[in-house]
UniProtKB/TrEMBL annotation:
Keywords: Amino-acid biosynthesis, Cysteine biosynthesis, Pyridoxal phosphate, Transferase. The modification N6-(pyridoxal phosphate)lysine is found at residue 44. One of its GO terms (molecular function) is cysteine synthase activity. Signal peptide: none annotated. Residues 8-287 form the Tryptophan synthase beta chain-like PALP domain. InterPro entries: Cys_synth, Cys_Synth/Cystath_Beta-Synth, CysM, P-phosphate_BS, TrpB-like_PALP, TrpB-like_PALP_sf. Coiled coil: none annotated. It catalyses: O-acetyl-L-serine + hydrogen sulfide = L-cysteine + acetate. CDD domains: CBS_like (cd01561). It comes from Magnetofaba australis IT-1. It holds the Pfam family PALP. The gene is cysM. Its cofactor is pyridoxal 5'-phosphate. Pyridoxal 5'-phosphate binds at residues 74, 177-181, 258. This is Cysteine synthase.
């Protein structure tokens, strides 16, 4: 009988060939890394586990210590899962605009949920988190400045992509939130082959795409280092939503809006690659679509 402890099931997610969406570009192979296959359903399982392990290893986290974290959803769910598994109390702070599915998932794992006003956006949740930690109510992993965030992808996501494409990956595309995924994966892939192009995805000005951020300068994640990203593409709400729906209806891949935005950017990228040049584009699909059923995304 095959079995493993939950923490050993994080990572090693599959690559799906998006041959239908990529059909207009026969010289490009478009591969999607299905991070929704992680135990708590998103790419953030990797960073959450890495941050817990790092804090325990350094002696920062002792039995009974409460963790307080600001989150837009997926990181919170992943942290709540690992906290439940390892037996730590968890408080998660998030904007009240986040979907009911995300709140319910965190609560199911036993986490305390604190909501901040929608108008304050994610910055308001970060400010409240800092205040609660300053008051001595717990410790904060701070996914935005914690190198254990990107290290999860340096040791996991990047090597997996290189292995599973047999070294044929030429481009890597990732939405940018905390930027941990793109920072760690870029470091790993460029160590294998410095010629691999790394493309980040931002929302257009005014667009609101769950999981993708265009940060004000004062809140830019400290782990973000611009030199690890070769190019940044912007996507809008409409195109992110359209590609998300196409992924479900044409490819049978049920994912969230940030995945649709990333694939939309990957298709833009594919259109720029000369027809006489073979390419393999790997794009991260951060989570599953069931976290968005209460929204208008699939209606």
């Amino acid at each position: 009988m095959l079995m493993a402890k939950l923490e050993f099931l994080v990572g090693n997610t599959p690559l799906a060939d998006l041959d239908k969406l990529g059909k207009p570009f026969p010289h490009v192979r478009l591969l999607a890394k299905l991070e929704g296959n992680n135990p708590a359903g998103s790419v953030k399982d990797r960073a959450a586990l890495s941050m817990f392990q790092g804090a325990i290893r350094r002696g920062e986290l002792t039995p009974g210590t409460r963790i307080i974290e600001a989150t837009s959803g997926n990181t919170g769910i992943a942290l709540a899962m690992i906290a439940a598994r390892l037996g730590y109390p968890m408080t998660l702070i998030m904007p009240e605009s986040m979907t009911i599915e995300r709140r319910a998932s965190m609560s199911a794992y036993g986490a305390e949920i604190v909501l901040t006003p929608e108008g304050q956006s994610m910055e308001g949740s970060i400010d409240l988190c800092r205040q609660m930690v300053a008051e001595g109510r717990g410790i904060n992993f701070d996914q935005f400045s914690n190198p254990d965030n990107w290290r999860a992808h340096f040791h996991g996501t990047g090597p997996e992509i290189w292995r599973d494409t047999e070294g044929e990956v030429t481009h890597f595309v990732s939405a940018m939130g905390t930027t941990g995924t793109i920072m760690g994966t870029s470091r790993a892939l460029k160590a294998f082959n410095p010629k691999i192009r790394v493309v980040g995805v931002h929302p257009e000005e005014g667009a609101k795409i769950a999981g993708i951020r265009r940060w004000p300068e004062a809140y830019l994640p400290k782990i973000y280092e611009r030199e690890w990203v070769d190019e940044i593409l912007s996507v809008g709400d409409a195109e992110a939503n359209e590609v998300t729906r196409r992924l479900a209806k044409e490819e049978g891949v049920f994912c969230g809006q940030s995945a649709g935005g990333a694939v939309a950017a990957a298709l833009k990228l594919a259109a720029t690659i000369p027809a006489d040049q073979q390419a393999t584009i790997v794009v991260i699909l951060p989570d599953r679509g069931d976290r968005y059923l209460s929204t208008d995304l699939f209606r």
